[in-house]
Amino acid sequence: MIEDGPFGFKNVNVEGQAEQSDSLLNFVKELAHLRRERIEIGGGLCNVLACGSEHVLAHHYKSEHAPLVLLHNLTDRPQRIDLSLPAGVKSLDDLFGGETPSLNGGRLTMELEPYGLRWLGRRR
């Protein structure tokens, strides 16, 4: 247990994190909830997508339920993404991570903030 300093238990704890909507605790809780809700993960075929940046993991879960595209910037710098959407994907909503990017002619082009992520799919 860390007792002193900026990461000591008096400064960083569940009680304090639970009260902050933008805390790491609430981020992980929301992500875990969404992961359990999206049966495409674990039940669908997963493919890595070329996105124009070697620093971004882009992958697509294809299932009979709905498409799911996940984007993860693994660096401390913004990354430009330009990817072709998988066949049959016409629209995507932001499920986690920020605003819904615009789709144009079967392509998704956007800038992903440092260490940013987007989970895109169809709302239920």
UniProtKB/TrEMBL annotation:
Matching entries from InterPro entries are given as: Glyco_hydro_b, SupH-like_C
Q: Keywords in UniProt for this one?
A: Glycosidase, Hydrolase
Family matches, as Pfam families: SupH-like_C
Top class in the EC scheme: hydrolase
E.C. number:
3.2.1.1
| Gene Ontology MF, one | alpha-amylase activity
Specify the protein name. Alpha-amylase
